[in-house]
Amino acid sequence: MFGELLKGLQTTLRYMFRPPVTVQYPDVKRPVRERFRGRHELKRFANGQERCIGCSLCSAACPADAILVVPAENNLEQPTSPGERYAATYEINMLRCIFCGYCEDACPTNAIVLEHQYELSFYDRQTSIYTKDMLLVPPDQGHGEIPPILTQLGDKRPSPPAQIDL
Amino acid sequence: MKAEGTMIKTEELQINIGPQHPSTHGVFRMLVTVDGETIVDLKPVFGYLHRNHEQIAEVNTYLQNMPYTDRLDYFNSMANNQAYAMAVEKLAEIEVPERAEYIRVIMVELTRILNHASALGFLINDMGAWQTPLAFGMREREKILDLFESTSGARLMCNYFRFGGVVRDLPPDFVPRLQSLLTGLPTFIDEFERMLRENEILRIRSEGIGVLPKEVAISYSVTGPVLRGSGIPYDIRKAEPYSIYDRFDFDVPIGTVGDVYDRFLVRIEEMRQSKRILEQALKQLPDAEGGHINPKARQNIRPPVGDAYTRIESPKGELGFYLVSDGGQTPYRYKVRAPSFINLTPLSDMCRGYKVADVVVILGSIDIVMGEVDR
Ligand code: SF4
Ligand code: SF4
Fold it and tell me: Which atom of ligand 2 is nearest to A67's Cα?
């Protein structure tokens, strides 16, 4: 029995001098992989226009019924998006979302992209609904980058021109 | 009733183990009748995690069900994806390209390794080796989950399969990373086995405990490592090769007695066999550009009227999907044959006559996931 105890302790000792495989989570964060599906972002074109044209295809593809899109007609002098319509309301209920990525696959203009943020927590159900202001990348931060993987996927659907003339 | 060998009069007592108990692997209740410490009868009570999975699936379109299957057995989302994708492909007669088949096999065999590594960790946790062996299993599992994350975009809920293939091709660094993982795997399996196989406590707690004889196992239609632990070499990958499993050379490990220890050994050996399959698959993997999905396969399908049943050897046993189509966008009927659920049915036969402390170990050796049992 003593022999076995010593054998066990040998393993313990050996592991004591190896670097740990764990990370101290809130202080150290493991970077996620490129394809990671986290919190959504609504992207813009290089000229600041919104990519989303309010077509509701994402909402139709969503298996969890998490997306609400209410489209409105574009003001022709100052269009919010290239196209006839834009999303006046765009809401994602993060408690319903299962991060499947179908919205991103369905979107004809690559407007919605699942990005890398994964720390989503709420105190109540109301705050779990992410509105358009929260999802849209701010114009002063340029246009949001489209991950290359999405443009790769685009062989099924041609990726949209950078700007559509009205 | 008199306890054996004494004249002390004891009375039968009914107790609940669970539903909120760390050893029941989820919300699962066992109504146990004990005489002293000996189990006289056991009644499994489940349904606490019922999510109406099958009914929801009849409302969703075929593609929308794919992420839902991830959540059946949340340890093995890739295996669930494959079983479901195969059922739809059979129903709609969609062909899968060669490379996609190889990618699928690689993913499912990785799933098998991670499932067994963590299942054994949890089993030993139940035996009282608190957390350390589990951490070993989890360390290995984490490496595989990292591969999954870089391939599919999620660690657990992969949602990686599509009808006619997989959604994205393997990332460029996948093959070298998998190779280095495979190089380190035998060290892990050997160390895991060496530390535990000869361990006195583990053997006392598992040898001769929870014996499931061959005939009983067959009559309950148990599958997977539990059946093979009872000594029946039945593996769907061999018995009815699906996908491309007929191209690989691997063995089906079996036990002799059918006790907890046999199931433990079968799982360890299965990890080695999965490694063998992975090595062969990596060697044969064709690098066809864009061969990860059949370009003709539509995702938003309306399969012709008919029905289809497909089954795969998931890490836990026979996982089957039965689909009936009425020609519409949503399945008319969707049924899951969940291995965890069916493997759980002989639990009372396996526990009768053993001690209360053994119940937890026997349950752990079946390796259930409540998400699949209750659906
Ligand atoms: S990721 Fe999936 S569940 Fe979430 S909003 Fe998009 S489609 Fe819906
Ligand atoms: S995000 Fe894309 S799919 Fe959704 S409404 Fe906007 S343009 Fe349409």
Answer: 4
Q: Are B368 and B315 in contact (CB under 8 A)?
A: no
Q: Give domain status of residue A20, yes or no.
A: no
Average pLDDT of chain B to the nearest whole number: 85
Cβ proximity of A104 and A114 under 8 Å: yes
Pocket lining for ligand 1, CB < 6 angstroms: A 61-62, 64, 66-67, 92, 97-103
Q: Is the pLDDT of residue A144 over 70?
A: no
Report how far residue B159's alpha carbon sits from residue A103's, in angstroms, rounded to the nearest whole number.
Answer: 13
- Please name the residue of chain B whose CA is at the shortest distance from the CA of residue A152: B168
Average pLDDT score, chain A? 78
The rounded distance, in Å, linking the Cα atoms of B322 and B95 is 19
**Chain segment A125-142, per-residue pLDDT in tens:** 888 888 888 888 777 665
Name residues 54-73 of chain B within 8 A of A (Cβ).
Answer: 60, 63-68, 71
Q: What is the ipTM of this complex?
A: 0.76
A14 found inside a domain: no
Residues of chain A in contact with residue B139, where contact means CB-CB under 8 angstroms, are: 21
Range of the domain at A76: 31-163
Q: What is the CATH number of the domain that holds A131?
A: 3.30.70.3270
Q: Give the whole-angstrom CA distance, residue B259 versus residue B227.
A: 11
pLDDT at A163 over 50: no
Count of domains for chain A:
1
| A74 belongs to a structural domain | yes
pTM of the model: 0.85
Answer yes or no: is A5 within a domain.
no
